[in-house]
Amino acid sequence: MSFVVRRILVPVDFSECSRTALNVAWEWAQLLGASVDLLHVWTVPSFIPPGMTVMGLGPTEQSLLELIRTRTDDEMRKFVSEAEARGIKIHAASSEPGVAAKVIVERAETGDYDLIAMGTHGRSGIEHALLGSVTERVVRRSHRPVLTVRG
After folding, report:
1. Domain ranges in the chain?
2. Among residues 37, 49, 51, 34, which one has the least CA distance to residue 9?
3. Fewer Cβ atoms within 10 Å of its own Cβ: the N or the C terminal residue of the chain?
4. What's the mean per-residue pLDDT of the chain?
5. C-beta neighbour count of 8 within 10 angstroms
6. Residues 39, 42, 43: CA angle, nearest 5 degrees
7. 21 and 117 in contact (C-beta within 8 Å)?
8. What Rg, from alpha-carbon coordinates, does the chain have?
9. How far is Cα 85 from Cα 90, in angstroms, rounded to an integer?
């Protein structure tokens, strides 16, 4: 059985750890002739109503959901721009709301990705127990291979 990699999904949280994972994924993509897609998953805090209005500067106001979506899209554009400036080609970049590990695994399946490449912050002890690890959950749940990159 051969393992062919045509599409690599790189979940990002815009951290340095994500940049490192993207760099490694790009190296693999070049070697294997694969494309690289980015995904950011965001969550509205459960204790704040999503329809809550946030006042902007001047006469503008928007819902918390709109504010998060706008800021996330801005961060993704910046992340992609920085990657492209380093010579990395991004095939597609998207962001969506949800529980990170669940959305990542679902996207990998429905998008027919051959590999997930993601960073791990390397938390341990009480920090890991309290915060958990999105990467760990993806590794446990995914039917696709997951390449973990230490940040």
Report:
1. 26-44+52-97
2. 37
3. N
4. 86
5. 25
6. 155
7. yes
8. 17
9. 11
